[in-house]
Amino acid sequence: MKKLILALAALLLVAVAAWFLFFRTPAAAVPVYGLTVVSSHPHDPQAFTEGLFYRDGVLYESTGEVGTSGIRKVNPQTGAVIAEEQLPAPYFGEGVVAWKDRLFQVTWKDKAGFIYKADDLSPLGSFTYAGEGWGLTHNDKALILSDGTPTLRFLDPETQAVVSTLTVTANGCPVRQLNELEWVDGEIWANIWQTDLIARIDPATGKVRSFVDVGALGPKPRGQDNVPNGIAYDAAGKRLFVTGKLWPQLYQVQPGTATVASPAAEALTSCTP
Ligand SMILES: [Ca+2]
Q1: What order do you get walking across the sheet with 102-107 strand by strand?
Q2: Membrane-spanning regions, if any (predicted)?
Q3: Given 71, 140, 144, 205, which is the most exposed site by the fewest CB atoms within 10 A?
Q4: By residue range, what is the domain housing residue 107?
Q5: How does pLDDT run across 63-121, given as a tens digit for each residue?
Q6: 50 in a domain, yes or no?
Q7: Could you tell me the distance, in angstroms and rounded to a whole number, from the CA of residue 26 to the centre of ligand 1?
Q8: Distance (Å) from CA 271 to ligand 1 centroid
Q9: How far is the CA of 131 from the centre of ligand 1 (A)?
């Protein structure tokens, strides 16, 4: 009987050890991929890019800094400005998004958003929101707003009221500094401020599925200002464009398939509960 109990105890021990080994092993770190450049195009090196998206052959760009903020339509091939509307002081322009025939632009700390006609950028009105405004994009139901925290807000496009929120995590760690946003084939892509990383976020869970490292692009060294910021996706043409604040180039890129080492991603995916 004793032998049987010992055998059962040993079996239990093995089972528990196996369970820990196979099921309790910490999740693998989030993979980081490089990219290849398909083409590069001129970009206004005076544009402090805070928002960027593509629609019907045109890039829409929002710029920041008090005094140089505004919204513009740009030829993606040449960088030529097609139309422009300035955002005067004291406002600091941030993200921009289109919903039907209107554009919505947020500002950094002014809690004020502005609405424009998409075709000629003529001002239509304003709206307010709590906290800060960083990036904007949309899915088929809502505008999506980042504010520097790990929480994305989903806004009703008609009322701009918050309808839901999503906390973004990578390997279980909250991801802060989510900046310019883009909806790309069912994922939310986000520049992470002061890094070369773009997070690819599962919109159902908030989990970062992978990172794209854009460190190969843009001016060096990176200062406080000239960081990557700006993701635009041509869904019909499957073309992905990225740029940065004060960058002289806009790049069409293709994410790579091989993982790369990234100390920044290691830092983002390491946290203590
Ligand atoms: Ca964007």
Answers
A1: 93-99, 102-107, 112-117, 123-128
A2: none
A3: 140
A4: 29-268
A5: 999 999 999 999 999 999 999 999 999 999 999 999 999 999 999 999 999 999 999 99
A6: yes
A7: 33
A8: 28
A9: 20
